[in-house]
Amino acid sequence: WLMSSVFLPSMIEVEFGEFYKKCTETLFSQGFKSFHMDFGDKYLINRELECWDKVNFLKRISDEIKLTAHIMSISGNHDLSVERITERCMDKGFEIIYIHSRSFKDFENLYDFKEKYFKNAHNIFGVVSEVSSYKNNNLVNFVQKYSIQNVLQMGVPIGKGGQKFCWDAEKRIEDFSSISSIKNIELDGGLTFEVVKSINKENIDRFAGWSIIYDKEPLNVLSKAIDLEKII
Predict the structure, then answer these.
(1) Are 183 and 150 in contact (CB under 8 A)?
(2) How many secondary structure helices (H) and strands (E) does the chain include?
């Protein structure tokens, strides 16, 4: 486990354009090399999120940049299905791809999907733990049984930016913290400087967010990101 955590800008609410480009280039130039990308299909969440333009741009900046995918899509044959997005993310060399168990009818289907797409890339596969007031025993058992290495813990309900952090997320992280196969727990959504200062960071390897560092001026985005790195 890393001694200190890493911050991944997610920039979910930013349209691809000059502001996005300036922010990502500025962040990268100062050592931020990991970015969190959100995808959605209008079924699992009520909006379509397709960010291949962002992915292609980041890949052009530098091959040092590492990308993490959070796929909020259901299984199926539609353009933004979890299968199609996964295939493209694998092609683009994503570092971790986080999948929702709710994308599938049951955990057996999730396992079949994992075997089909990640058979030779077990270290890239991750699961999403949604924010909830109770332990998701089925998910915890799945992670244990199949030695899953990556867990994305949501701090807010999925699909919207700028929501208030839900402290049940801290309890859900504890549900996974004693599982020996886990190499990486990432916390995403609802983060503020106060939340990051207050939360138990011991088992959190990565923090993902955008509103916490947002500013209209890219240089202020950078200075907030640097301040955040100091406290994680």
Answers:
(1) yes
(2) 8, 9
What's this model's pTM, rounded to 2 decimal places?
0.95
Angle at 155 between CA 28 and CA 5, to 5 degrees: 40
* pLDDT tens track, the chain, 232 positions: 344 689 999 988 899 999 999 999 999 999 999 999 999 999 999 889 999 999 999 999 999 999 999 999 999 999 999 999 999 999 999 999 999 999 999 999 999 999 999 999 999 999 999 999 999 999 999 999 999 999 999 999 987 666 799 999 999 999 999 999 999 999 999 999 999 999 999 999 999 999 999 999 999 999 999 999 999 9
Q: What b-and-e string marks burial along 125-134, b requiring 16 or more CB atoms within 10 Å of the CB?
A: bbbbbbbbee
